[in-house]
Amino acid sequence: MTNIEAECLTLALQGNQDAFTQIVDTYQNPVYNLCYRMLGNPQAAEDAAQETFWRAYSNLKRYDPERPFATWLLSIAAHHCIDQQRRKRLMTVDLDEIIEFSAEDPAPNPEKVIVESEFSEEIQRQLNGLNENDRAVLILRYFYELSEEEICQTLQISKSAVKSRLHRARQHMTDQWTTSQESQATERRQHESQTI
């Protein structure tokens, strides 16, 4: 945490709303990205990010300054998204709905955008195939580069649970990626044989 972030946090703890707005500005992208990876839908991610910041603001007095603020904030987001996924599964909403991110490059190469979009959609489909607990661990480890210890703190689970969930999630992603690549190769061969 930078000195500016620490100062904003101190002021926010004293009730300064402008300081909390600065915190939101600082962390909105990491929180939104975590929510998007967890939920797979931009609108749901936006709602979850707003809820995360509201919960953080409401519970700011409970924040332990000995703990990194980003870890505390991301744990709020992760737990909220896990709860959302549980509700979603209970309501039998279609988990395969994928909405594309827009490209960040203002003048992108069209071919590159298509390939990146397809790759991103495939990764999101595979993430959606994981249960919410395994998905949370995988996202925190690989998208946010948290250590196993930080994941333990964030999700309030044991180190062995983190390792087990990571192993399961990696295996799932590997299996799904292999199946997807084999399927695409078969489709290409069939298409090539039909055009000859």
Automatic annotation (TrEMBL):
Residues 121-173 form the RNA polymerase sigma factor 70 region 4 type domain. Residues 24-89 form the RNA polymerase sigma-70 region domain. Residues 172-196 are annotated as: Disordered. Keywords: Sigma factor, Transcription, Transcription regulation. Gene3D superfamilies: 1.10.1740.10, Winged helix-like DNA-binding domain superfamily/Winged helix DNA-binding domain. GO terms for biological process: DNA-templated transcription initiation. Residues 185-196 have a biased composition (Basic and acidic residues). NCBIfam families: sigma70-ECF. This is RNA polymerase ECF family sigma subunit.
